[in-house]
Design a protein that fits this description.
The chain is globular. The chain is 25% helix and 24% strand. It has 17 helices and 32 strands. Strand 22 and strand 23 (462-465) form a beta hairpin. Helix 12 runs parallel beside helix 13 and helix 16 (656-675) crosses helix 17. The protein is an alpha+beta fold. The chain starts with a helix and ends in a 15-residue tail after the last helix. The relative contact order is 0.14. The structure holds pterin cytosine dinucleotide and dioxothiomolybdenum(VI) ion. The site of dioxothiomolybdenum(VI) ion has 10 residues, from loops.
Length: 762
């Protein structure tokens, strides 16, 4: 598709069903009426229930597990411990790196974090399992733990994260204007409404797993490797997901426990984590520390950036939260250095939470640039324009598209930025101090190859199938739009079926890549289906178009005719009947023809085959600018966000209504991150003390003001087949620094530790 074609397609967007139309979520009615069945809602005959027993210490050895009382409790079928659970194989990691020869035991004797699974009770009912789990007595030999980053250790360098050019230290030392500060973000959690868990059922050596999942094929591979069965024997089902935010892409220890229990008992097992377990069974966003030093000349031009970052990781697992990812590309600078370390603490391995890396990275650099602007007495928006990066300063490549200047302009205009007074504490409304802040954000365009099946059925309806998923982003809807537009049928005629690993394969839904990958695949598969239909219509002797002096036909509104409109016209159903066809089906993919079957398998079950965002001649990213107004109570220090205007560049939008909703969701999460969210660790036992939705503070409607989003994107032919860039994670990036900068403008107080709570302000 050329840029010209895309613009043409864009101009069609008044039509709801077309790509670019504001079609409401096609899965909405099923969710509202309860017709949508989530993974745990499967009613299976003979279903049993498993409940986990977690460690109450952060580090040490399990010296004994007394299961006698639990074993004889009513309804109990099994009590599993490290000694009694079946052996599993180790599974490869998400890069597909080969597993070790060692066996894998998802229940532990060596505790490395509080809440780690030690035992599991399986019973006839959930209540019986809960009651019996409380009877399991674990004794420990406790050892000292490192519970968070507060000991100040520098940890282990991650050399692969180092980015350097020029002579950064010397240039910083010589710069006439310098700022240097440390910024911290706490451990944060994805806190999806739907908890983690699964139902596992074995039939012979066939395993079916109903589990909310951002990556059916990747997780199916893990189960297959754990149990030593062929990949095809594992079926993962995940038609709807109550939020993932990065937390649901991997099969985890509790998943292994449930699947093993089902195999051992020969009965299906349901295991759903309770809310506190949701805070310890998979990783939240790692706590981070970073220092950003910027040296500039008197006109505000950056001469050097020196950046050092640290994130927490687990004792027995590695997570890197790349803190230099935005730092290295946002501004033009002749000298740059960014290095990253990790510190091992006694926690579950941290994980992906919406925009891992970019999110905390932007908090550092976007606050630091505000500090520099204040130091120089330059407007913070002007400061960003002075240092605008005309190309990727790190990769030294042209941007595929970068509408960030347009975002600054459109956002400033809509917000009324020109009316901002420069001095902190200079705007007020009664006893409320008013502050206006700005920050930019970005997220790379992650690209991968996709596959989809598109079927045209005898009645003229269309089915799209893919093992990709919709956790609320809108996949069902945009794929229906893509198929409808490509095939020329009304969107109501299209049904999209997702969330079953036996459908056409799909890679991970992470890194905001799925929409680009899957619209590309569906566009291709639907195009093949259409070509076949038209080919048959012209060549099959039974077709009413047979012998027509035309070399193509046009399908519009579900009707097929010659493009000039001078011949006969039929509905697709009439043509299918004439052709005697039950269906026309095509499996289309964007996978390179040169790929071997193994490379194809790895394309869907690992992240190793994804295309780098700086591949070829371009550097591909989404961009945004957030303008925020806060009101700070002068007496109490309470901060309310009263207005947000954000202008965002995600390239061409497949569905602006859904993209806006995604951006707003991200912005709301950013408000939570700025003002509320913080996982608090008990220093004695390493326990997350606010591991529940009452004490882990998340924003509610009352915390969220009117949010205006403005799309400034243009089609980006280098980022995806249809010209879109990533949407899902972009919105959160830059929100927390925009709020922190607004709080500084309101109060004159710079808070560099999230969240910005009132005791830090007074
Ligand atoms: N879209 C669009 N135009 C584009 C790109 C996307 O209109 N050019 C819209 C579509 O509606 C698409 C959605 O935005 O379905 C997201 O597309 P994309 O940016 O490709 O992101 P993914 O589909 O890969 O979704 C994953 C992304 C991530 S990584 C997290 S984390 C996240 C997010 O999406 N978690 C979410 N959004 C979420 N939204 C909900 N409701 N729940 C989550 O858990
Ligand atoms: Mo998103 S944090 O990449 O699933």
């Amino acid at each position: 598709m050329t840029v010209h074609d895309m613009k043409h397609a864009g101009s069609d967007s008044a039509r709801l069903e077309a790509v670019g139309g504001r079609l409401s979520r096609v899965d909405g009615p099923a969710k509202i009426t309860g017709a949508a069945h989530y993974a745990f809602e499967q009613q299976l005959e003979g279903l049993t229930h498993a409940v986990l027993v977690g460690a109450t210490i952060a580090a040490g050895k399990v010296t004994g597990i007394d299961t006698r009382a639990a074993e004889t409790a009513p309804g109990v079928l099994a009590v599993l411990t490290p000694d009694t659970i079946m052996d599993l194989n180790s599974a490869s990691d998400w890069f597909g790196r080969q597993p070790s020869e060692e066996t894998y035991c998802p229940l532990v004797r060596e505790v490395t974090f509080s809440g780690q699974h030690i035992a599991a009770v399986v019973a006839e009912t959930f209540e019986q399992a809960v009651a019996a789990a409380a009877l399991v007595k674990v004794s420990y030999d406790e050892t000292p733990a490192v519970v968070d980053l507060s000991d100040g250790s520098d940890g282990i360098p991650v050399d692969a994260m180092t980015k350097e050019w020029g002579d950064p230290e010397a240039a910083f030392a010589e710069a006439p204007v310098r700022v240097c500060a440390a910024y911290n973000t706490p451990r944060e959690f994805q806190a999806a409404m739907e908890p983690h868990g699964l139902i596992a059922r074995w039939e012979g050596d066939q395993l079916t797993i109903w589990e909310p999942s951002q990556w059916l094929d990747g997780m199916a591979r893990t189960y297959a490797e754990w149990f030593g069965v062929p990949f095809e024997n594992v079926r993962l089902v995940s038609p709807y997901i109550g939020g993932g935010f990065g937390s649901k892409a991997l099969a985890l220890a509790h998943s292994a426990v449930a699947a093993a229990a089902a195999k051992m008992l020969g009965r299906p097992v349901k295991l759903v984590l309770n809310r506190p377990q949701n805070f310890t069974s998979y990783g939240g966003r790692a706590a981070t520390r970073q220092t950003v030093a910027i040296g500039a000349d008197k006109a505000g031009r950056i001469q050097s950036i020196v950046h050092r970052g640290v994130n927490e990781t687990a004792v027995d697992g590695m997570w890197v939260e790349p803190l230099g990812s935005v730092t290295s590309i946002m501004y033009a600078t002749p000298n740059f250095s960014s290095k990253q370390n990790v510190v091992r603490v006694n926690t579950v391995v941290p994980g992906a939470k919406r925009a891992p890396g970019e999110n905390p990275s932007a908090f550092g650099i976007e606050c630091a640039i505000d500090e520099l602007a204040h130091e120089l007495g330059i407007d913070p928006l002007e400061m960003r324009l002075i240092n605008y990066a005309e190309q990727d300063p790190h990769a030294k490549k042209a941007w595929s598209t970068r509408q960030l200047r347009e975002a600054f302009a459109a956002g400033a205009e809509a917000f009324g930025w020109a009316k901002r007074s420069r001095e902190p504490r200079s705007m007020r409304d009664g006893h409320q101090l008013i502050g206006w802040g700005v920050a930019a954000g970005t997220y790379p365009v992650r690209r991968a190859y996709g596959e989809a099946v598109v079927k045209l059925l005898a009645d003229g309806s269309v089915e799209v199938e893919s093992s990709s998923i919709d956790m609320g982003q809108g996949t069902y809807t945009i794929l229906a739009q893509t198929a409808a537009e490509t095939l020329g049928v009304p969107v109501e005629k299209v049904s999209v079926r997702l969330g079953d690993s036996h459908f056409a394969r799909a890679g991970v839904t992470g890194g905001s890549r799925l929409a680009g990958v899957m619209t590309g695949a569906v566009y291709k598969a639907a195009g093949q289906t259409l070509d076949e239909l038209i080919g048959l219509a012209l060549s099959d002797p039974r077709s009413p178009f047979h012998g027509l002096q035309a070399n193509t036909l046009q399908v519009k509104g579900g009707r097929i005719a010659s493009p000039r409109g001078d011949g006969p016209e039929f509905s697709i159903a009439e043509l299918m009947r004439a052709l005697g066809r039950e269906k026309i089906e095509a499996k289309g993919d964007t996978v390179p023809a040169s790929f071997t079957p193994e490379q194809r398998y790895n394309n869907y079950t690992t992240i190793a085959m994804a295309l780098p965002h700086t591949e070829g001649d371009y550097s591909r990213h989404s961009w945004c600018a957030h303008f925020v107004e806060v009101r700070v109570d002068e007496d109490f220090g309470t901060v309310r966000v009263s207005r947000v205007v954000s202008a965002l560049d995600s390239g061409r939008l497949y569905n602006p209504k859904l993209a806006e909703s995604q951006w707003k969701g991200g912005i709301i999460m950013g408000i939570g991150q700025a003002l509320l969210e913080e996982g608090i660790v008990d220093r004695r036992h390493g326990r997350i003390v606010n591991g529940n939705l009452a004490d882990y503070m998340l924003p509610t409607n009352a915390d969220i003001p009117d949010i205006q989003t403005i799309s400034v994107g243009i089609p980006d032919p280098h980022s995806s087949a249809l010209g879109g860039k990533g949407v899902g994670e972009l919105g959160i990036v830059g929100v927390a620094p925009a709020i922190a900068n607004a709080v500084f403008h309101a109060t004159g107080k710079r808070v560099r530790d999230l969240p910005i709570t009132l005791e830090k302000l007074i």
